Amino acid sequence: GSQSFIRLQKAVEDVLGKKYYLPVHQGRAAENIISNVYVKKGNIVPMNYHFTTAMAHITQYGGSMAELLYDEAYVVDSSHPFKGNMHIEKLEALIQQQPGNIPFIRMEASTNLIGGQPFSLQNLRDVRAIADKYKIKLVLDASLIGENAYLILKREPEFKSSSIGEIIKKMTELADLVYFSARKLSSSRGGGICTNNHALYKEMETLVPLFEGFLTYGGISIREIEAMTVGLYETLDETVISQSPSFIEYLVNALHEKGVPVIRPAGVLGAHIDAMQVCAHIPQTQYPAGALAAALFLVSGIRGMERGSISNQRDEAGNETYADMELVRLAVPRRVFTLSQIKYVEDRMTWLYQNRHLIGGLKFVYEPPVLRFFMGGLEPTSDWPQQLMAQFRKDFGDSL
Ligand SMILES: *Cc1c(COP(=O)(O)O)cnc(C)c1O
User: Fold this and answer.
1) Which residue, by CA, sits nearest to atom 8 of ligand 1?
2) Mean pLDDT, to the nearest integer, of 135-140?
3) pLDDT tens, residue by residue, 66-107
4) Which atom of ligand 1 is nearest to the CA of 182?
5) Could you report the per-residue pLDDT of 207-218, keeping only the tens digit for each?
6) Residue to mutate (ligand 1; options 53, 370, 371, 373; most atoms within 8 A of CB)
7) Would you call 46 helix, strand, or coil by DSSP?
8) String of DSSP letters for 81-142
9) Cβ contacts of residue 245 below 8 Å, gap of 6+?
10) CB 264 within 8 A of CB 283
11) Which runs of consecutive H residues, i.e. helices, occur in the chain?
12) Of the candidates 153, 186, 187, 183, the residue with the CA atom closest to the CA atom of residue 170
């Protein structure tokens, strides 16, 4: 019953506009609780795009998902401002085909896995209209809502004079349930589910003491609760929220000028390199995005994240399900890097691109059944890392 929690509750209400708040230790814990309560075996959850942990929890409770993006979302080099938009006609068609089988619609702000691409506020309104028409709940994954709001401010003319705070509230008021990872939303450790609907709050409430901790801390330490509170308010500050997207835009444009295939327009979260093009010689069975991430680490010490088939999971029969896109994410979190560090990434990535023929494939040597990208182990399919490093030494010498 600490005062810190009261302050956090107030921050959630001030920033996200929701009265009832359930604290959880991380974003995925919110996904666990929401899936536990609402996803039944055989259910389908329509969404603009999945996130790894969201998918894992929905499938854990016997559900599946339908990803309903417009074709433009999968175009690497595009000028579409809102590649994260939900395909409205497909959404309505799916609901008509699956009466009673859709527990909720999930919208993810700044679609993490397809390059941090935002949806527009108009698109969210259109999704809300469908949700109302068919009386289906709308769940918003708000982990990256600040950045999505920033791009709405920059790209959606109707909101060009709004503040970040106003846009965030306009977004959250359209959703019945809002959940978030505080790692992203407030640069801390924690998360939450919030709503203005008391009945929904009650349906989930008992799972917090079961999985997380008591309702006044949800497994989050008091120190982190204070940090989350500060981080939530900082999300309203355009100078804080614009820093990461500005650096990402710089990096994306710089790489594009050097010919490196990169997701455009620049989104949020990071620059996303298209490994399908960089490693066109590596079949998807040998994980081109994982291989590119490994190669980049060898030549630079930069830790990119594979966002491709390794991040997918096998189907029920144990077959690989190949990702729509094979991306390497070079994440640029809030307030972490300087411009000279970003330029170093540009320099090394460009060298690697020029020597991309030396990159080879990967294979699993240890593959856990769920979330294999976290704990799996892979090895190269040949001695390509040695060849790559030999070329690196030839160009730069041993002193590096
Ligand atoms: C990170 C993330 C999550 C999961 O949050 P954790 O705090 O890592 O458990 C869920 N959704 C999105 C969009 C995310 O980026």
Assistant:
1) 27
2) 98
3) 999 999 999 999 999 999 999 999 999 999 999 999 999 999
4) 7
5) 999 999 999 999
6) 53
7) strand
8) S-TT-B-HHHHHHHHHHSTT---EEEEETTBGGGTSB---HHHHHHHHHHHHHHT-EEEEE-
9) 147, 150, 151, 266, 267, 268
10) no
11) 3-16, 27-38, 52-60, 88-97, 121-134, 145-155, 164-172, 182-185, 198-205, 207-211, 222-234, 238-241, 243-257, 275-278, 288-300, 339-354, 372-375, 384-396
12) 153
Q: What's the 364 CA to ligand 1 centre distance in angstroms?
A: 25
Q: Specify the DSSP class assigned to residue 264.
A: B
- Atom 4 of ligand 1 has which residue's CA nearest to it? 27
User: Token digits for 339?
Assistant: 């411009």
Confidence band for 400, pLDDT divided at 50, 70 and 90:
low
Q: Taking the mean position of all CA atoms in its chain, how far away is CA 43?
A: 23
Q: How many residues does the chain have?
A: 400
Distance CA 181, CA 113 (A): 15
Pocket test for ligand 1, best of 32, 51, 177, 332 (most atoms within 8 A of CB): 51
Greatest pairwise CA separation for the chain in angstroms: 66
From the CA of 389, how far away is ligand 1's center (Å)?
34
Residue 353 token pair? 């691109």
- Ligand 1 center to 143 CA (angstroms): 6
Amino acid at the residue 343: K
Long-range pairs of 243-248 with CB within 8 A, sequence gap ≥ 24: 243/334, 243/335, 244/147, 244/268, 244/269, 244/332, 244/333, 244/334, 244/335, 245/147, 245/150, 245/151, 247/332, 247/337, 247/339, 247/342, 248/116, 248/332
Average pLDDT, the chain: 96
Q: What is the pLDDT of residue 62?
A: 96
Are 296 and 349 contacting, i.e. CB atoms less than 8 angstroms apart? yes
As a whole number, mean pLDDT of residues 3-32 equals: 98
**267 DSSP 8-state letter:** -
Predicted local confidence at residue 370, as pLDDT: 84
Residue 202 has pLDDT above 60, yes or no: yes
